[in-house]
């Protein structure tokens, strides 16, 4: 067995060959980064989604996130609104001219989500779901690929390679922390992965400061650290009433805390 030839394909790790899109190119943006992708953990209602869309618009944020298909650890927890969630996110995104990001957990949903949502998120739990990666990559949509919670950087890059092999050059990586023995944070943010990935690939990478920490009291210094080591942007969860959120209640910022974070980054 000789393996397949990669010669004309866009290899993520072949940094000198095929050019991948920057985030700016992917979405025809005017501004250089850092880019902020913000929004609730899950889309829960039109009313909440509308509130967050207005908050983002008012702060000149271009991207809105929100899960419709939620990969929950417990099957008894809120699983997301599914199709209805996609519909709501797409509606507020179009209304406020925001770029929408939402996770797909099953290959059979890729095409229907791709029809309505601007960027498909592959979550940490599915980073090595290779059939899902192939199907998402083949949609031609920009893909936000999160690092698996037990994945090495090499495995992370290989996962991106699966998407790239579909001819997809619109890939954004997302470091969201890995599992270690430390339990003061939800995951341990591997800050070194950012400069390493910058060195070894041409792919943009952002840092999810919400899922890596699982708490919000230290979000400002960590956000600054992520940008200081060269991240192209941040993902952060914001909810109109975090205490009532149906998922990740403890880590989601309220609108005021979100604005404080933006102010701290500006300074
Ligand atoms: C998310 O971003 O909604 C999410 C579930 O994060 P992760 O896949 O990183 O756990
Ligand atoms: Mn979440």
Summarize the structure in short.
This protein is an alpha/beta fold.
Proportion in β-strands: 5-15%
Count of folded domains: 1
Within CATH, the superfamily carries the name: Aldolase class I
Give unreliable regions as ranges: none
The total count of helices amounts to 10
Tell me the number of strands.
8
Based on the structure given, which CATH architecture is correct? Alpha-Beta Barrel
Q: If you average the pLDDT, what whole number results?
A: 95
- Terminus-to-terminus distance: 56 Å
Protein name: Bifunctional 3-deoxy-7-phosphoheptulonate synthase/chorismate mutase
GO molecular function, one term: chorismate mutase activity
Organism: Vallitalea pronyensis
Keywords: Transferase
Q: Which characteristics define this entry?
A:
267 residues, globular, binds phosphoenolpyruvate, binds manganese (II) ion
Q: What report would you give on this structure?
A:
Helix 5 packs across helix 6. The protein has a single domain, classed as Alpha-Beta Barrel (TIM Barrel). It has helices spanning 23-26, 46-58, 83-95, 110-116, 130-138, 153-164, 193-200, 209-213, 219-228, 255-266, and strands at 35-39, 63-65, 99-103, 119-122, 143-146, 171-175, 205-208, 233-237. The model has no long low-confidence stretch (mean pLDDT 95). Helices cover 35% and strands 13% of the residues. It has an eight-stranded parallel barrel, surrounded by seven helices. The protein is globular, with a radius of gyration of 17 Å. The chain has 267 residues and is an alpha/beta fold. Bound molecules: phosphoenolpyruvate (PEP) and manganese (II) ion. The site of phosphoenolpyruvate has 11 residues, from loops.
